[in-house]
Amino acid sequence: MQAVLLLAALPMLAGAWLPWVLLRPNRLAPGEYLRLPPVWVAALLVLALLPLAAARWRPALTWVPATLALLLAVWLLGTRTGAALVGQAAFARASAASGAWLTLLGAGVALYGARLCTRAAGRPAWTGLLWAAGVGALLLNGTLSNWSVLVEARSEGPRWVQELAQHLRLVSTALGLAVLIGAPLAVWASGRERVAAAVLGVANAVQTIPSLALLGLLIAPLSALANAFPALRSAGVSGIGVAPALTAMTLYALLPVLRNGVVALLGVPAGAVDAARGMGMTAAQRFWRVELPLALPVWLSGVRQAAVLLVGVAAVASLIGAGGLGTYIFKGLQSAATDLILLGAVPAALLAVAVDAALRGLETLLGRRLGRAA
Asked: Is the whole-model pTM more than 0.85?
């Protein structure tokens, strides 16, 4: 635990001395790097070392300096960007520089180390709720309103909401298709060794193709299908857009759904199946009442992996006109606008974390219920 806190202190110590704000006259122009005043440098240096001292003398209280370090870093980012924009034109931008990012990284690692220390001390770890509430309060009271990423978010407005909704639609639709296709295949392959090897081999082969290459390979066949069958074209199938994006994303999501499904079904205890057979259950009853409930937690783990994978692949799909948060990532790359990149990348990363946490919680809940039933 102290090793984790030491790793947290190093980027915070470096971040205190490095530039904190990049002030640019507009989104694209080169700018000027601004450093923190000495008093705040000293405050960050102290807070960087306090979690280490607390872990040595009062492990249960390590979360206090760790939480303060994160909240101070976020508050400083908001106040320093606001101070940098005083007297500047309306289209000037103040973004986080290397010092701010390193300090935020170190504070995040310190919070993780504090969570370990709190658990080791036998007390509940409330650090996540505390820092989330603190950061939320800073967002709500406008402290971060001058940060360039939030400025870009306000300027994009409804368009950003539309792209976020499109990202969610792509992920949920592809995941649903992957489960609808992969679940029956997994059930069929779980009792047939050769079929399982063939199906998993094909799914593995698809995973080796880079996402951008797969999207490109789908343009020609989907365009040909749309030209050959006008009904498909009327339904929205074409070489670019949503159709190839959903096709590629579904193919990518098949492997974790298939693999975990086969492993989960093969891992059902033979004794449970024999007991169900001895009770006179039919094959369908054994599957729905015994095999599927026991296999579901492991199978759901594959669905979770597929969902997190799709959040990232959906960002690449914007290159062929499918929309989503990747629109901002690639628009920012084309114009060298870091703020636009973050406007797409940060929500996508948070979405992946939220999806992973929600499905992981569902796995845990199912595991506990099955444990009680056993």
From this structure: no
